[in-house]
Amino acid sequence: MADARVPFLDLRALNEPFRPAIREALDRVMDSGYYLLGEEVAAFEGRFARYCGCAAAIGVANGLDALTLVLRGWKELGQLSDGDEVIVPANTYIATLLAISASGLVPVPVDPDADSFNLDADGVRRALTARTRVVLPVHLYGRMVDMPAIMSLAQEHGLLVLEDAAQAHGATCEGQRAGSWGHAAGFSFYPGKVLGALGDAGAVTTSDPELAGVVRCLANYGSSEKYIFPVKGSNSRMDELQAAILNIKLNELEQHLTGRRAAALAYQQGIANSALKLPTGVLDEHAWHLYVVRCRERERLREHLTREGIGCLIHYPLPPHRQGAYADLSTRVLPITERLSESVLSLPIYPGVDSQSVIDACNRFSGAAWSE
Ligand SMILES: *Cc1c(COP(=O)(O)O)cnc(C)c1O
Q1: Where in the sequence is the active site (predicted)?
Q2: What is the DSSP letter of 293?
Q3: Backbone angles phi, psi at 355, to 5 degrees
Q4: pTM passes above 0.85
Q5: Which ligand 1 atom lies nearest to the CA of residue 138?
Q6: What was the pLDDT predicted at 4?
Q7: Annotated catalytic residue: which of 193, 226, 232, 249?
Q8: Active site residue 232
Q9: From CA 63, how far away is CA 200, in angstroms rounded?
Q10: Mean pLDDT computed over every residue of the chain
């Protein structure tokens, strides 16, 4: 992949401009003598909460933990119990389901809308049972779910809403950012995400002070104050160094998103090939974590682009219910999810990507015209 003419993602190059500031931050953190639960994390939490439009953010170890800690927090608060059902899009990354399973809850995967790739209110409505307690929409590829529709359905049925915003830093819906729509949200700062650390990190956002308190406690061994443990927690903390790096990169996030949107616009305008179905949605609301096209002859397209030196990947080749880990879900009938997994292909997208080479390579592909 590294020798592709247009790499799918070159994290080293993307992080290079931050090197001087990161060096300075490393010195600052070393000199402070505080490597956990210090000022860098506190500063990042405050700034990220404000950025998302939430009352609170809690820095945690990774995105999977962020989602898990919210669900466990709701259990501690008596809002959920073992065996409760959580509705989740079937075409998500497996971590979304793992968070549910790890919390003693039951994932109920539902087919997404094939056009937006996202969970929609009708799909949720069809999957409701007497045990449904949570809806877990995933802003897949950086495009936000239709949150007003999800929130009003949730209100109607008394459900909690947890946004999986791992791919959607800075994405908006009706002018309001991801992470501020649901009762809580989980973010990942895995290096390849829209806002990425130089290692693992994650955050919970919420405007519920009670939940924020419990999540903070659970992420620090269940400690409410030093050596006092009201609940059985875990160790899931963001470290000072990652927080310092995220503080630096958060300054540039809007500019970074502008670069991704410029690449998406170039693709929307430049790719003219009936074999490829381009993504839909409002360009400027999307965080464009991934630019995902669909093709009936996906494998041929992948081989063609690889030959042309264009890095591309499949997100995701095998949905969770087809994995060994979720053999218990293998009999679910999820035709849209199956079709998506067979037809999606992600093109390179990041600020400064050589979009013209990608466009030319896509336009040189000849294959069967797209049809659903
Ligand atoms: C990356 C990702 C996660 C997990 O985040 P980690 O920080 O890798 O644990 C969860 N959900 C989705 C949709 C993701 O893309």
Answers
A1: 193 (proton acceptor)
A2: E
A3: -65, -30
A4: yes
A5: 13
A6: 83
A7: 193
A8: no
A9: 8
A10: 97
Please tell me if the CB atom of residue 95 comes closer than 6 angstroms to any atom of ligand 1. Answer: yes
What is the SS3 assignment for 59? strand
Q: How far, in Å, from the CA of 245 to the mean position of ligand 1?
A: 19
Q: CB neighbours (10 Å) of residue 105?
A: 24
What residues does each domain of the chain span? 12-110+117-247, 252-364
CB of 134 within 8 A of CB of 62? no
Topology of domain 12-110+117-247, per CATH? Answer: Aspartate Aminotransferase; domain 2 (3.40.640)
Angle between helices 298-307 and 355-363 (to 10 degrees): 130
pLDDT for position 45:
98
Of 96, 97, 100, the one to substitute when testing ligand 1's pocket (max ligand atoms within 8 A of C-beta) is: 96
- Torsions phi, psi for 85 (to 5 deg): -95, 140
Per-residue confidence at 41, pLDDT binned at 50, 70, 90?
A: very high
Please report the atom of ligand 1 found closest to the CA of residue 188. Answer: 7
For the domain covering 252-364, report its CATH number: 3.90.1150.10
HEC per residue, 218-281: HCECCCCECCECCCCCCECCCEHHHHHHHHHHHHCHHHHHHHHHHHHHHHHHHCCCCCEECCCC
CA of 371 to the centre of ligand 1 (A): 31
Convert the pLDDT of each residue in 140-162 to its tens digit. 999 999 999 999 999 999 999 99
What does the pLDDT read at residue 162? 99
- Is the pLDDT score of 1 beyond 50? no
Residue (of 25, 59, 27) closest to 42 by Cα position: 59
Q: How many other C-beta atoms lie within 10 A of the C-beta of residue 222?
A: 16
| Structure letter (DSSP) for residue 310 | B
Q: Atom 2 of ligand 1 has which residue's CA nearest to it?
A: 166
Beta bridge mates, 291: 347
Structure-block tokens of residue 358? 């990608």
For the cut 70, the answer to whether the pLDDT of residue 183 exceeds it is yes
Contacts of 348 (CB under 8 A, 6+ apart): 6, 7, 8, 9, 291, 310, 311, 312, 358
Is the shortest distance between the CB of 343 and ligand 1 below 6 Å?
Answer: no
